[in-house]
Amino acid sequence: MKLVTIIGARPQIIKAAALSRAIRNHYADQIQEVIVHTGQHYDDNMSQVFFDELQIPRPDYNLHVGSASHGVQTARMTEGVEALLIKEQPDFIVLYGDTNSTLAGAVAAAKIHVPIVHIEAGLRSFNKSMPEEINRIVCDHCSTLLFSPTKAGFENLKREGFPIDNEPPYTIDNPKVFHCGDIMYDNSLHFANIAEEKTDIIQRLELADKPFILATIHRDSNTDHSERLCAIFEALIRLSKDCHVVLPLHPRTSKLLKINLNEELQKQIFNNPSISLIPPVSFLEMIALERHAQLVMTDSGGVQKEAYFFKKPCIILRPETEWVEIVETGNAILADADKNHIMQAWQHFKDNPPTMFPEIFGDGHAAKFMLERMLENFSRKVL
Ligand code: UD1
Ligand code: UDP
């Protein structure tokens, strides 16, 4: 059985590590994986570092599309992916999440009748001003096998009319939805101890005996709007008087800080001994930081979940989240880009640190479950 995996943005490269590892460990003689990197993320610390650290096979192809407007970037990727699918003739394509690389893969594959497997299917923010919401809806509705990491994702698909008790053969017109746990949880469990052994970021940033908040910000809805970005950074400055803040900066945010943050805030951020403003870190460094942090503050989808995996409270810098369960259990608070809400959420978690983190994201073996379903559905070709 031959599959083509599309990766492009940082979280997809990280997720692909779990599937590639499960192929290597369990199905090396049955599954051939061809990895296509669209080149959406290209800085070493947004791409190469993960291949080196997480033992992901080198991509067989890199389309080197780089950064551009949504239309241009997606069009370049679609063209490149289509050509490679025609050349490679896989049994199916694997797409992760909701980026422009996901959308391009979905459009390219569906139009030339290559079945799609969507990992992280069914998530919805119900906010179509997010580019990701458009990408995930299109991808889900072009897919043959849909793997939802959560019960809420499964229910969303049911509500959108996906059949639930249908029988094989599964096709784009008779798609199959599975609720199967989260592939990122597989990774966090697998790499948690390795991260402790192999990284020294806690020592390097002198955090061993210092409580700290780990923050990340990269959503366009925050970075591209001066008012929102200023509100978040005002809150960070206020928080840093109470607790050290570590902020690995996404390149999008680094660029826009200088444009959308007023001069006074820039001064207070860049020369603040209580805020460690650092370049993007590797995955092992990131999970070491998550493990040691007192609290996580983020607009990232992946980082919200990892906070939960490591039993840390999370302040979500968005008005809504796809990971509704972590809010419902009281372990995360939606504070949006609102200074007062952020401060209130911080105070709430300081007074009431959460202790119960029920198992929402499966058992850490999601990748193996998914590969079994793929083999059942697609193994026809002899390698
Ligand atoms: C993308 C995804 C988003 C995901 C995020 C993960 C889309 C629409 N968005 O957002 O869903 O949460 O990745 O990190 O697909 N840049 C660099 N170097 C890089 C990559 C990007 O400098 O290696 C800068 C460029 O200025 C670029 C900007 O970051 O214009 C945004 O990059 P892009 O890939 O378009 O979107 P992200 O914000 O990274
Ligand atoms: N991450 C990382 N280094 C960083 C910031 C994040 O390795 O400096 C990892 C993080 O642990 C998670 C993933 O990147 O696994 C999340 O990606 P990101 O926040 O870029 O995107 P999202 O999940 O919001 O799509």
Key features?
alpha/beta, 6-stranded parallel β-sheet, 383 residues, binds uridine-5'-diphosphate, binds uridine-diphosphate-N-acetylglucosamine, 7-stranded parallel β-sheet
The total count of strands amounts to: 13
- Describe the biggest sheet? 7 strands, parallel
CA-CA gap between termini:
7 Å
- What ligands can be seen in this structure? uridine-diphosphate-N-acetylglucosamine, uridine-5'-diphosphate
Low-confidence stretches: none
Give me the secondary-structure category: alpha/beta
SS field, number of helical segments: 17
How are strands sequenced across the largest beta sheet?
Answer: 3-2-1-4-5-6-7
Shape: globular
How much helical structure, as a percent, in the residues? 40-55%
> If you compute it from the alpha carbons, what radius of gyration comes out, rounded to the nearest whole angstrom?
20 Å
Helix/strand order: EHEHEHEHEHEHEHHEHHEHHEHEHEHEHH
* Percentage of β-strand residues: 5-15%
Give the integer mean of the pLDDT values.
Answer: 97
What does this structure look like?
- Helix content is 48%, strand content 14%.
- It is built from 17 helices and 13 strands.
- It has helices at residues 10-26, 48-54, 70-88, 100-111, 131-142, 151-159, 183-198, 201-204, 220-223, 226-240, 251-260, 263-270, 283-292, 301-309, 324-328, 339-351, 366-378, and strands at 2-7, 32-37, 61-62, 92-96, 116-119, 145-148, 176-179, 212-216, 244-248, 275-278, 295-298, 314-316, 332-334.
- Strands 3-2-1-4-5-6-7 form a seven-stranded parallel beta sheet, with helices on both faces. A six-stranded parallel beta sheet has the order 10-9-8-11-12-13, with helices on both faces.
- Helix 7 packs across helix 13.
- The radius of gyration is 20 Å and the shape is globular.
- Residues 9-11, 40-43, 46, 67, 98-100, 131-132, 218, 250-252, 255 line the site of uridine-diphosphate-N-acetylglucosamine.
